[in-house]
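Example 255.
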Amino acid sequence: MKTTPSVLVVEDEAAIAELIVINLRHHGFCPIWAEDGVAAQREIDAAVPDLILLDWMLPGETGLTLAKRWRTQQARTKNVPLIMLTARGGESDRVSGLDAGADDYVVKPFSTKELLARIRAVFRRRTPESHGEKLFIGDLNLDPETYRVSYKTIPVKLGPTEFKLLHYLMGHAECVHSRGRLLDKVWGDHVYIDERTVDVHIKRLRESLGRAGGAAMIETVRGAGYRLTATPEGTMVPTDYQAQRRTHTRPPLVY
Ligand code: CA
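Predicted structure in complex with calcium ion:
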């Protein structure tokens, strides 16, 4: 299930962009080059990249403006790892880059080796995802190789979207995931889908798990999203009231 991570390289200087693109491709990434904010936005609208490398000084809108927008105004890009590239290395510039939501900051001139190390580090921090491994959370088992799911050894039948959704939730169990994040992670590019779509598929997933008795493992965290837990409070499907109470005793971490 391992896929090549895509990296959007937003850089106006062709020579630098080319160097980065060649190196990324050589090291197993799928680079996409955009020379300014307009081109970058077009790429993002077409497909959400796995990581953005963003130059600070660009014609038109600066990298800093773009970083702020992608981080705070666009649900699609809010959680995409972002590394700022720039010749500016002063303390205050570093701080504003990180304040704008960048995960890291690489100062030009940089070695491609350093850049690749930073990219890998950001990926490690942001996506501790397992590929193809069997997952066990409480009584729930999922095997991505055979597409089989069972709860207390009872087979659970799921549609492809519910399977993907459960796979993601089990890979990131006990964390609260917002609807926007689930849309990006499970539905991928289909970002123009309404967030209520997530609710519909969560409902179906609960119904399928419910037949085997495991519906309570998927909790609604009011105002935040959904969480898969090995230790649901009751054996019944949590009502909004129960979920609401839970948020007071266990503050959710939103990823
Ligand atoms: Ca530049």
